[in-house]
Amino acid sequence: MSRFKSAGGGSGLSQRQLRVGEQVRHAMAQFLQRGDIRDDLLEKTVISVSEVRMSPDLKIATCFIAPLGDVDGQAVIKALASHAKFIRGRLAPQLSQMKYMPSFRFLIDTSFENYSKIDALLRSPEVMRDLINEDDNADDLAEDRQDAGQDGKK
What we know:
2 domains, GMP Synthetase, Chain A, domain 3, 154 residues, 3 strands, alpha+beta, three-stranded mixed sheet, 6 helices, single chain
């Protein structure tokens, strides 16, 4: 059994991976906000770093990126990947407490698209009808309990 598995038997990330990932995410977001990269696409694009997942040995940082606006996400990922070594060098002073400076990989974050699909599904007329019916049933049940409680006190 691997020592990196959680107590529940799942393959979740360790507390250290989560902590370091958050530190790297914060440093990456600040770096991208400053606009230190001289790339036409990256200079005119607002980029959100939603998550950074660290490998178990903390040598690889996978950054989940969400470009905001009407921009080709794959082009942004390609531009960031071409500047990965430059980014690594610029983030080294901010992450000096780490034994090894991780190498960066970039992926598109699709969670925002998933959230919008779920939101649209929940707002559909069929689901709204079912939610309204459940609310009415819950109100009727609460009134029945309240009436039963008052009858028991008399």
